[in-house]
Structure formats: C-alpha cells, structure tokens
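Two proteins were folded this term; both appear here.
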Amino acid sequence: MCKRAKVALITASKVAAIVHVIFAKATEMAARKTIRCAVQHEIAKRKGSRFISAAWPLSGGGDAASVLVKQYIETQRGKFPAANHHCYAYTTMDGRKLCSDDGEPHGTAGRPILASLQRAQLVDVCLVVTRIFGGVKLGPGGLIRAYGAAAQEVIEQAEIVQKVPTKLLYVKTNFSYVDVVKRASDHFTAELVSQEYAEDATFTVSVPVLKSDEFIGFIQTKSSGQVEVEEL
C-alpha cells in the first residue's frame, strides 16, 4: 500500500513538473514579438553627428536571417555613402543574436543596439544604426547613449506584433502559375520575401508554420503539381 501511494505521488509530481515546463514555454513564446514592417528614424544630432536607425523584420532564422542582415546593411551603405559606421544587432526566433560595432570603440554601439532589442523582447529583427561623423568625438559614454537612443527611438516608431513562427520556402514556377503563388501567399498570410523573374519565376516565401502544409497543398492542387516547392 505504501509503495503504491509513493509511486502515485511521484507520478503526480512529474506531471506537475511537465505542466509547469509547458506553461513556462508557452508563456515565453507568447511574450515574443517582432515588427510588422521596415521603419527608419533619425534622432537629434549629437555634437554634429547624425544617427539614422533602421529596423527590418527577418524571416526564416539561422543562415537565411544572416543573408537578409547583410542585404539590409548594404542597403544603408548605398543610401548613406558618406557614413562612417553602420553598426547593427539582430535577434532570431531560434535564439541567434549578434551585434557589431563596425569600427566604433568596442562595446559602444552593437551592444546598446542589441540591449534595446532584448528589452523590447523582439525577435527576428535586424536593427542598423548609421553614423555620419560631425567632427566632434563623443567618447565611450556618449556613443553608448547615442546608439542606445537611436535604437530605442526607432523601436518606438515601429508597429510591434506578436511573433508567429514561420518557415522559408523556395518556390519555382513557370509564368503560368505566378498568380497561384501570389494568391496562396495572400490567402495563407505568407510574405513574399523575394521575387525573381528570368526563364522561370522564383520566390522566397515566409509562411506561418501552422499553415505551411496547406500553403503547399493549395499550390500543388491549383498547378496540378507543376510548381516546385522546397523548404530552405
């Protein structure tokens, strides 16, 4: 009798522990947020220096996110060729995080930007702060405050939404089924991350994980299996 009671007690304890872990994980996931679309903002000059911040949502995580980050940095380089620094940070749903001072003193730029993303509980976001030097040095403390303010203010300008887990799909089709891909994207709230048109049309599509099977099924049905779909 005693052994049975003890076994039942241990089992109940394990169940309670499992429920606690599941609840904690669900709470953590629910707290994760991202931004709906790209946003740009410039703070007031700091001793003549301009700080222009820009943030973008990332899709796919991992290596796919790294590729997008590089593209966004190059976008800022092209827009501001006179800039001295393009410092950045990004975080992803799968736990990846990275920051760069891009030539500023160590820890004075990338870390304040990353800290702003983390305080806002944002994931799958890339934030770049571009500095155009104004002729007067700010010192480490001044740089930390300036980069932190630039990051914080652009986040305040962004539309923040709850994060829905997504996966990236590569879609290749002849031009007959381009409309099918676009209709599927609209219907299943997927995002066309990139589009290229050559001999065929190719798309990189960010699809909510829970809708990905339906998305693929819709395309295959409407195209009679003529559209190529691969997970990235």
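Next, the second protein.
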Amino acid sequence: MSRDIEKRLGYHFKNTRLLTEALTHPSASSALSPSYQRLEFLGDRVLGLVVARLLIERFPLEAEGDLAKRHAQLVSRETAAKAARTLDIGPFIKFSKGEFDAGGQGSSSALGDVMEALLGAIYQDGGLAPAEALALRLWEPMLSLDLTPPKDAKTALQEWSQARSLGLPVYTVVGQSGPAHDPRFEVKVQVGGYAASGEGASKRAAEQLAARSLLDRVDA
C-alpha cells in the first residue's frame, strides 16, 4: 500500500512512519500511532509558503490585498480536498470503524487535512524541494489566470445586497454536528427576504457556502 501511495505522490519516504502518521485520522490514533494533526499543522505552513511564492511570481504587479484573496482561496481546506481527490487519497486514510461507516473517506475535512499532512510529512522527510514539487503539481492547475482576483462569496453577496438597498446579510449558526476533531457547522444567511444555508468544516467555510448558495439562487 505504501508503494502505491508513494507512486501517486511522486515521492519515496525514507521514514515510512511519517507516511503512516500522515494517513491516520484522529479517530484511529493511539499512543503508538499518532494522528496526522501535527503534520497537518506543518503542511499547512509549507503549502502557504509555496502558494505565496507562486502568486508573487505569477502576478508581479498585483497588490497585496488581491494576492491575499487568491492565497486564501488556494490554501482553503476545500481546495486541499480537491487536490486529495485528484490523487484518490481517500482509500489510504486510516479511520475508526465508526468514522469510516459515517463516510469519512469522502469528507472534505479529512481529505483536506490529510493532503496538508502529506505535504508536512514529505517536508519532514526530504525537505522543502519535494514538498514544493508536489504542491506545485497539484495546485498550479487550479490557479486562476483571470485578470481580476477571485471575489469571495460573502463579499459578492454584500455588494449585491447593498446595490439593491437590501441592507447587510445576516449569518446565523443553526446547527453543529460531528465529533470535536471533525466538526460540521450549518449556517443560514438572510437578506431582503432571501435565505439560504451552507454546511462546512468551520463557521467561516459554512458562511461562504451559504453566501454562494444564495448568490446562485438569485442569479438563476
């Protein structure tokens, strides 16, 4: 199994325990088999650096604020999960039976976390160069080449509502589920008689998805 995942990553581990750790969900961890959380913490920083440097090189004339918008989109958990799905990493993640039966393999939260943990593991094992090579292989195709930076859904919804004198959108957390290590939040947004909901791994992500859902509805 390790050879198969290494082939997908394009990297051979000298310390295979790092690979095992990066693929271990918190629900399946133990004193002898730690979860991916520490490596995810490291991988998040590695990814942030690689993406920041990529954006600086790709958009040399763009202002810091616009670069920050692109960066936030590219290092989001949803984008990391998309990268993980490109490699079909889900079947390699070790879950508890309960978490597996609950659909953990397809969870964007788990997939995004593991993708970052794998970057952290590669960095720990071989340094920045191989971690950067993997990140660029997966993230560069997702880099928007639009002349204008991406606009987050909450900003777009606020501009839409203010242009119609509807006031500011109001976001409310209406539900929370899942274990402490993998929570899910449901947020409802309301403005001018319109409403929509979104669910995400964080309140911020759920707000963005709710705003996007409402924008899709009013633009339909």
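The chain has ten helices and three strands. The beta strands are 170-177, 184-191, 194-200. These notes refer to the second protein only.
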